[in-house]
Every structure is written in C-alpha cells, then in structure tokens.
Amino acid sequence: MTTAPYPQQYTSPIPVRRAHLGDALASEWTKIRSVRSTMWTLGVMILLMVGVGLLSIVAINATDSDLGPESVLSLGFNGVLLGSICVVTLGVLTISSEYGTGMIRTTLTACPSRGRVLAAKAIVFFLLTLVVTAVTAAVVAGMQTAMIDSGSAASAEEWVRATIGAGLFTAVLGLVALAMGALVRHSAGAITIMIGVMLLPLVAGMFMSSLPKVQEFVFQYSIPSLLIAFYSDTGLIEGGPHGWTPLWILSGVAAVALAGAFLATEKRDV
Amino acid sequence: MIEAVGLTKRYGAKTAVYNLSFQVRPGTVTGFLGPNGSGKSTTMRMILGLDRPTSGHVTIGGHPYRQLPNAPRQVGALLDAKAVHGGRSARSHLLSLAQLAGIPARRVDEVLGVVGLQDVARKRSSGFSLGMGQRLGIAAALLGDPQVLLFDEPVNGLDPEGILWVRNLMKALAAEGRTVFVSSHLMSEMALTAEHLIVIGRGQLMADMSVKDFISANSADFARVRTPQTEPAQREKLMGVLAEAGGQVMSEPDGALRVAGLPLPRISDLAHDADVRLWELSPHQASLEEAYMRLTQGAVDYRSTTDQRAGLMQQPDPMGYAPAQQVVVPEVPQQGWYAPPPPGQNPYAGAPQPGAQPQPPQQQQRPYQAPPAAAPPAPAAPPAPAAAPADLSKSEDAR
C-alpha cells in the first residue's frame, strides 16, 4: 500500500501481483469441475444423446425404413434437443448456485470486478459444453453412419454442421440460460423459464391454426426449429432460417441476455 | 484503515444503516457491536462493495473496495460461514478463491493448516458443522494474507477451544499491524478480544471509544449488602434507612441488597446507626455486558416478552398470593435495574400485587404496549442515543 499513513502497517511476504481474467478462468474451471451438478447434467446429456442415437439405429434397422434423400446424420437432432435441456440446466446452475448458497458474496469479495467473474463463467461454461456436445454428437453420428445403410452419404459440410454446428448452437443456448440465471438468481425459477422458452412456443404453435401467420413464425423461429436447420436444408417448415443463420440469431439473443446480465450484476446489491 | 463517512443504506422504506461515520485503525482489534438487526452485516457488506450505500461512502486505505488495486490481497473477509457451495470440498473452495485472486495454490494448504482443517480438506463442505464452517470462512479470509480483515460473528458455533483460538488469532493479527474489524452481538466476547469498540443500534452510531472508556462511561457502581438471613426484620429496616438516605435499593434473588447512589462507608454508618449487622458489604462494577445492554436497550428491534398464556390459565385465586413486598432484580439486568420504579409500575419487576385488586390476568399491568421507560438517572451519562427516526428498523431478511 502506498497511501499507508501508518508505518507499522502489515505487509505480506507473499508476492503481490494483479489478478486478471486468466486467473478468473482458472478459478471458474476449478469451480465447475468440483461440483457434482456438472457431472450429473453433462453425464445425463451424454447418456441421452447416445441412448437416443442407439434407439434410432435399432428402430431404423428393425423397420427397414428408408431415409430417402436425407443423410444418416439427420437422426442426431432428437438426441441434441434432449441434451440441450441438460445444458440449459447446467448453464443456469453455473451462476444461480452461487446466489443460492451465498457463495457469490465470497466470490465477489475475492474479485470485486463483477464483469470479470461473469465473463470467466461464461467462457468456461461455453467451451466445456461446446466440446462435450460436439464430441458426443460426433461419436453418435459415427455409430449411426457405421450401423445404418439407408440414406444418402453425408458431405463434409453436413458433418461439420451436425457436430460442431450443433455443439455451438447448444453452447450458445447455454449462455442464454447462464444469463437468465444471473438475472433471476434462482435456480428453479431460471431453469423453468428456460425450458418454457425452449419448448412452449412450439407446443402452443400447434394449437394456433386460427392464427396462421403467428403459427408460421413460431414454427420457423422456435428453438427446436432453429436447431433442426442444422440437420435438414428445409428446417421444420419451408421458409425458415437455414444455413448458419439460426446460430447467428441465437447468438444475438445470447448477446442481449448477457449484456442485461452484466448490467444487472454490476448494479445490484449482492 | 477503514473509514466510513455518513454511511446510509435504505431498503425501500426501511433504513438499515443511518448516517454512520467511523474509523477502524490498524494495529488493534476493533469490535463492532449491536443487537440483532442493527445493521452490522449491512455495514460490512457496504465496506466490501457488495451493497451500494444509499448515501455516504466507505473506503479502505483511501479507496472504495471495488476500486482497490489487488483487493483480495489487501482485504480478507468472513461474512457468513454458510456462504460456500456445499457440494465443493474445502480445498476446492479455497483453491478457486486463491486462483481468482492470483494467490499461489500452496497458500491454500497453508491456511487449511492454520485453521486446522487439513484432515477434512477433501470433504464436501455441506457436511461441515457450523464451527468447521467458521474455520473454513476464516481460512478464506486469511488466504490473501491481507492487511485489513473483517469478520462477521466469527465465534458463532465454535466450541470453547475454538473461541479461544479465534480470540488469540484476532489479537495476533492485530499485533502484526493489521486492521482487524470484528462484529459480534456478544459483549463479553468483545471485552476479551477488542481494544476499541464501535457500537451501533438501529443502524446508528451509539459509541465509538476504547473498551476501557466504554466501561467507565457506561457502567454503574453499586454495593452489595447482605444482612443476616435469619433476621428478615433487620433487612426491612436497613432498606428503609438506606432509601431514606437517598440510596436506590433493590433486592437480589438470593436475598442480598443492591445499593446504588451511596458510598460504602456511608452504608456502613447507616447500618451501624440503625443497629443492623452486615454480613457482606462489597463494591461491584457493572460488567461490560450490562453496560452494553443499557446502552442498546432502546435500540433492540426484536425484544422477547414473557409468555403470558393469556386466557389459557385458570384464574388465579387472589388469596393464594402473599402481597408482593419488594422489587426483585431479575437475573439478567434489564430496564434500568439500578433505578427501580415504584412497585407495580415496572413491567419487568414481576408480581404486580395481585392481592390488592384481583384482576383477570390479561388486564394486569404486563405490557403488550411499550414498557414505560424507567428513566435511569445515569451517573455518568453515556452518549444518549439520538431519537431514532420512526422508520428506523430492519427486517432480518433485508439485504
């Protein structure tokens, strides 16, 4: 301390260095791998993706179905959609469990820069879920390709979209959940909101035959519709976003949500 | 060095802390005292930049906490022993904090040794007892080897050995030239640990002085007088004489008398003149606990009342009671024990003479309303707590 007016003030023998984002990343990595909820949510996600993948293999081979022009990779959609619920749960828990336990006060005392803490959480969580989802999707797709003869051969781009693309989409969806967790600060509440946002519009859309415009919009832009675009050129219905557009749309949503979370975290009392 | 200037925090209509100004200096343990809900924790959170003051500011070494360079290396805090993720092991918890603050990982094992948690370092902290949680919290506070330390109720849940350890730890930390700021609602604990006291009640500063000054300013001396137990008449006689001479006499539960306002030689003379033998005449000084309770008695938010079971009890037979004879001092000193009001007016004095006028219990002078303050003529007037604004209270969950 340079401003010390008291000569007898204590100075620590441990060398002082300024902490930076890298330190926060290491800290968040320690946190995320030292709680069971991470193992549970990601473990259940892997089980769901692999399980649904194997079921689809059995179903296709048993019924001798023909996939027609679609490639085998399109079967991966169901597993990823189910797995994304686990990712959303983990995303919320990454931040809301700190509020729930009071750990956030300890964390923010150790690092008063709240933006740095939130950024580190987002980065660590994003990379972890991206890797786990993409690798699991690749393994499932490999199994399906090896064990199903039907359907057209998948191109390299289709492989990228079904693995890295799906992984990116899921991880960005997880970031939205993390931002929601930071805004709501309550695990059960934020998880419920996120699952509602993911699935309710599509379900509600099915009963909207009197409002065809709204129904069409919902079918084109609900989260499952955006995800299915990574597996089929047409999407759920014709005219929806295709190519990499769904990822950019969701990234925009995540950016807005994270910006809100940063502002709220910075302003609010802990 | 912690410096608060005009610190105020409102939660909606509730004012948790009002216009609080104080300094905490290095080299001593400073105790932060107040009843439950008086704003201690809120003040601590504002010092650490977790809560934003409504007005005023608080700095550590001249900087607000959130602008402090290398904050975790300068300030360590134990706010709440339960503020950990229970699913994480003690070591992982401390490691994540050390990494966040850029502290070498070997320091984690050092502090685990300091607080004696080495053997359970790999156990999940949800299984920890409150005492172990406190130790983990203290370890987190010590992690950065900081020069300013804040502890919120550090001895809660600790066993006697742990309390002694915390007490010595605080003193040792202060002796190294650190600023140590410890909150507690236990005056007796602070009397043994702290050198300086900051007392708040309902969010306002009530005292900021050394422990020594605090005792002499707030304590009242009294004499304990005991007459032969076999002769109650002598006791009655002495009480009358002493009261006549201007002393304030109260009866203790074991039959002794507490006399304030008369010097010991005068009591002896009066007894001699009245021809009363004394078995005991001893000087006493009120403890720090009593001084503290006197100071904060007007500022307690959550005061318990006697469980009257009104309407549930059988109407007592008025003849079954002997008329109450004198005020009996309760074991725990409460409202102005050294200045007893006439019997029957002091709501805390027990037995409101049911023999005189039999009344249904719920109409007796036991207060549901505010107790009539037994205006104590304090010998050395303490800094009287300013009349608190009407909205000055705080709910327990306000944060």
UniProtKB/TrEMBL annotation, chain A:
The reply to whether Ligase figures as a keyword in the UniProt entry is no
Pfam assignment, any one: ABC2_membrane_4
Assigned keywords, A-Z: Membrane, Transmembrane, Transmembrane helix
Q: TM spans, by residue?
A: 39-60, 72-96, 117-142, 162-184, 191-211, 247-265
**Protein's name according to its UniProt entry:** ABC transporter permease
Source organism per entry reads Streptomyces lavendulocolor
Source lineage = Bacteria, Bacillati, Actinomycetota, Actinomycetes, Kitasatosporales
